[in-house]
Amino acid sequence: MIKLLIIADDFTGALDTGVQFASEGIKTRVLVYNPCEKLIDDEDNDTDVLVIDAETRHLSKEKAYKIIYDIVKKSKEENIKFLYKKTDSALRGNIGSELSAMLKASNEKSLPFIPAFPKMNRITKNGVHYIDNIPVDKSVFGQDPFEPVKYSSVKEIIKDQSSIETIEIPVANKVLAKKSKGILIYDAQSEEDLQNIGSQILKDNMCNIMAGCAGFAEVLPRILGLSGNIQSKVKLSEKLLVVCGSVNPITKRQLDYGEKYGFKRIHLSPEQKIKEKYWETEEGLNKLKKIKYSIQESDCCILDSNDKDSDNETFEYANLNGVSVEEIRVNISQTMGYLLKKIIDKNVNATFLVTGGDTLLGFMEKVGVNELTPICELTKGCVLTQMEYGEKIYHVISKSGGFGEENLIKTLIDLLKSKEINVG
């Protein structure tokens, strides 16, 4: 029976949040939302936490509002007691419209919103959101070529998409939240702050609807009384294939570090990453053979959709071929997903690291899978999942583009060489 419904706006975000429960042994499902299907099916009879990817990150604020509103309404019809709107920890996407939709559809008077993720150095102080002590609009997320964050004030980010009332809640003020209506924006600078906020929300009986990133999701099992049996170990292939569809500078630095360490890095040309049909040509099939050989002959192989340093060849190629900026984003995620499917169909034995929610979803669409089972976090922000495809089980590590230390890939290789991963 579903006790908690989590609604995310992309698939890596759904996994980042769902793994907080799965790693505790709590029965958790993570899948892509289909508006044509029932919210809950027969497989959910023994599921405690249902996480759905609503895929609203890149939609208009009006379309995102309607989707979230409809999901929340369906959840009320299914008598799901607790709802959590998972938001991006850098506040990208339709934050204001989606929180507004959740509050309106739920008929609750207030929605506690805790955007901080202290473990990832993402905090909220005096209503301003910081990434590594830099206001979010001045960070790398403010320079994102596809979805830049325009404000550092959480209230301003919400106001840009919604006229709903917002109240800033300082950490020390335990009375203001209970007396207020609208979206309640909580400051938080530490794990202790998150724990204290969770305890206060529980005490004030404000748990029916909540919102925040994967950071506050870690608190939810305790305050909602969820628990389960933890799986002990999982065996993985020692070889790592990195499929990078993220343009985030944090991910780029991780790839640079991996290449300097000696891992094989393959920069895909604009045609190879924008035109899916390339991989059916004779040239593409020969390139695929070389990629398979590189995977087999090295501990780690990186397929990189980023241009080389100082190059701008992808946008130049797109301009010459009439491809818009939005089409670049969509085409790359679809083509990278298709390429990974082709590799798997070649019976390559590897653990797959996919960076970027769009790329992960593109891959899932190509293999006809709408659900991944989260197992545990290998490192903060890197979620180990398993997937069934063609009667085989594959292990996929998902990572949001903005997560992880510079030496992330080497860290993952060291974990894979340990042969067994401890869970829990």
From TrEMBL:
TM region positions: none
Residues annotated as domain Four-carbon acid sugar kinase nucleotide binding: 241-408
Keywords, sorted A to Z: ATP-binding, Carbohydrate metabolism, Kinase, Nucleotide-binding, Transferase
Keyword ATP-binding annotated: yes
Coiled-coil region(s): none
Domain Four-carbon acid sugar kinase N-terminal: 4-219
GO function terms (MF aspect): kinase activity
Domain of life: Bacteria
Pfam families named among the record's database cross-references: NBD_C, SBD_N
Protein family per UniProt: Belongs to the four-carbon acid sugar kinase family.
Name of the protein in its database record: Four-carbon acid sugar kinase family protein
Organism phylogeny: Bacteria, Bacillati, Bacillota, Clostridia, Peptostreptococcales
